[in-house]
Every structure is written in C-alpha cells, then in structure tokens.
Design a protein that fits this description.
Elements (H helix, E strand, L loop, with lengths): L2 H18 L5 E2 L5 H10 L10 H10 L2 E5 L7 H14 L3 E5 L7 H10 L6 E5 H10 L24 H11 L2 E5 L3 E4 L3 E5 L12 H13 L4 H22 L3 H14 L2 H5 L3 E5 L1
Parallel strand pairs: 1-2, 2-3, 3-4, 4-5
Antiparallel strand pairs: 5-6, 6-7, 7-8
Helix pairs in contact: 1-9, 2-8, 2-10, 3-4, 4-5, 6-7, 8-9, 9-10
C-alpha cells in the first residue's frame, strides 16, 4: 500500500466517523474514563462505559467496535471480560485491547492470555507491554512477565517491533506501539508516525484515550487504518496543544479542542514513513 492510498483511507475513516457518529463502547481503566469518553466524542464518535457482564455482552452484539482496557481490574471483570471478548469474536466485531501492566498479577495475565483465542483486532500499548503480551502469548519477540514493570515502558519502540509484527500476523489485525515515534503494523507493513507531545506523559490516560479513539475509527475502517488514524490524530492534536498550553492542565483542554477541530486532510498529512516488512 502506497502513502497516497493510506492517506485516502485515513480521510475516508475520519469522514465516515464524523458523518455517522458511531458508538464504540468501552470497558476501561477507571482512572481514565473521563478522558477516554471525551476523546471519543471529540473525534466524532459516541461513548458508552460498561462494567456488568450482561451489558458488555449486549454491547458487543450491537456496537460496530469495542474497546477493552485492563488497567484497573474489578473482581466482576473476571466474568465480564471473557464473555465480552467471546461475543465480539463470535459476532465478528472489531475490538481494541490495551494490555495495561501485562505481567503484573494472576487475574490480569489470565484474562489477557484468554484473549489470545479471540484475536483482538487492535493491540495498543507501550513497547514493554507489547513485548510482554507477545511473551504471554508465546509469540516471537516476547519477553517474560518477570521483565514487566508497571504501566511505564522501559523499552524503546524498536525493541518491540518483532513482537508487534508477530502479534499482528497471529491476530490478522494491527498493533500500535506508542512512544516518542509511534509504530503501527499489520504484520506486512509498518508505519512510523511523528508528532505528539511530551505532555502526554504528564497527564493520566493519554494512551487509554488513544485506544478508545482507535475503537471509534474501527467502526468505519480496517484495523490497520483505524490504528494509524487514531495515532495520527493524537500526534497532530498533541503537537497543536503543546504550542498553545502553559502546562499539563491547559494541555488537556487544548488537546481535546485540537481533536475536535482536526480536519481529515490535516490528520492524513501528519508526517509518517512506511516500511515494507
């Protein structure tokens, strides 16, 4: 796929979302619910946050795409997440997983391991999380769970490329690694996306919100384009917000405004490089 073709698909995804306002329900980190929902709405989608097993299962059947984040697990999620993932797989719906802190805790690892058979459409994480998930799933490029240290990445994006590619090939979906320069792959093609802001590390939930926005675009695009479109709009809006803000608090406000005001052509024009794998 050439750059111009990718740009056209990004423009189409953005335009479709803005015209149809699709709902991408989330089971997400309780620390970041507000930012996830606001970001989804800002890009043109609709948000719904669910917890209960029957509600999650119902949402999986009626929504076009869905987002699951394992950041702050509640006991009920031991039932909710497997039922939801199974329903998404059976209904052939696209879904995004953010494997926050994979490797820490037995329940978290069990839930994420069980996701393997249901093949999430998009995995979004930092380099350490992507490598740890590949290790948990026994795929190339993975590392053992004893190497994982919380939610912050101790690895560079380049370190996780093999893991991302092997996961994408297995799921037949896409993997997005967030870092100073972001990397998105479908296992056959890799894209480096530039921009963003150092303030993303100064607020809670930027990565969670990114995955939620990817789910919105997954309602209208294939996994690779959805992941790249989400990455590009965050890199575009982050750069704009940093130029206008005076600190983390005002950055979050400016960032949501920039997401809302971003035009399809601007999102597709974010600097990115293609690598054939």
């Amino acid at each position: 796929m050439r750059k111009e073709e990718i740009k056209k698909e990004i423009i189409n995804a953005v335009s479709q979302v803005k015209s149809t306002r699709p709902m991408a329900p989330s089971i997400t980190n309780s620390v970041t619910i507000n930012l996830v929902a606001n970001a989804q709405i800002a890009v043109g989608g609709s948000a719904a946050m669910v917890y209960l097993p029957d509600e999650a299962e119902t949402m999986a059947k009626v929504a076009s795409a869905m987002y699951i984040n394992v950041g702050t697990l509640l006991p009920i999620y031991e039932e909710t997440l497997p039922r939801c993932a199974k329903a998404l797989f059976e209904e052939k719906k696209q879904w995004v997983v953010d494997p926050v802190a994979v490797g820490i805790g037995g329940l978290r690892n069990k839930l994420l391991y069980d996701f393997k058979k249901y093949k999430p459409s998009i995995i979004r994480g930092n380099a350490s999380e992507v490598m740890a998930l590949a290790g948990l799933w026994e795929l190339d490029g993975g590392e053992g769970e004893d190497e994982v240290r919380g939610v912050d990445s101790k690895d560079a994006v380049e370190d996780a490329k093999l893991a991302a590619i092997s996961i994408a090939k297995y799921t037949e979906g896409a993997v997005a690694i967030s870092g100073e320069v972001d990397f998105v792959t479908d296992g056959k093609l890799g894209v480096y996306s530039y921009g963003g802001s150092h303030y993303f590390e100064k607020i809670t939930g930027a990565g969670c919100a990114l995955a939620g926005v990817m789910a919105v675009y997954a309602c209208c695009a294939n996994p690779f384009i959805a992941a790249l479109t989400g990455t590009n709009i965050f890199n575009f809006a982050g750069k704009i917000a940093e130029e206008k803000c005076s600190g983390p608090g005002s950055f979050e406000v400016e960032f949501l405004d920039a997401l809302y005001n971003a035009r399809a052509e601007e999102i597709s024009s974010v600097e990115f490089e293609i690598e054939k794998l």
